[in-house]
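The instructor's notes for this session suggest beginning with a concrete chain rather than abstract definitions. Hand out the sequence below and ask the class to guess, before any prediction is shown, which regions might be ordered.
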Amino acid sequence: MAGSFIKNIAIFSVIFIVSCVNNVKEHGIIVKDADLDKLRLGGSKQFIVKKLLGPPSIEEKRDGNVIWFYINYKKNKKPLRKPELTHYMIVELIFDNSTLSEIQKYDLEDINKVAFNSHVTFSKKQKHNIFKELLRNIGRFDGASDI
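After discussion, reveal the predicted structure:
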């Protein structure tokens, strides 16, 4: 009886300790300074930049220029607390006639300086309860996609 109690306490303690570990998640595209150094203002074309850095997180057009944003951030989730933004980096690349004309870097301190396009696309998202979702998904799956 006492052995079972101690075993349960040990299992509970391990689960509790593991759940208290910080959980750091990184999202977005990491742009290395070494890769940015390879780009030439007035010389690098869009296809070269895309080959080197990958596709941008956000692409927009402003004043006849194409602007690419590469966004990367880290959140640290500590137990019983809100997630904390610990790293934030935006690299803004401006292209004039498909040629790189300007590079801007923004970090956590500059987070409010980035001028994104103010146009917003809204989606018509309907609220469903769990039963509607389950009924809606019946028949959408086939056995071949599980392999």
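Then share the key points. The radius of gyration is 24 Å. The first strand starts at residue 23 and ends at 28.
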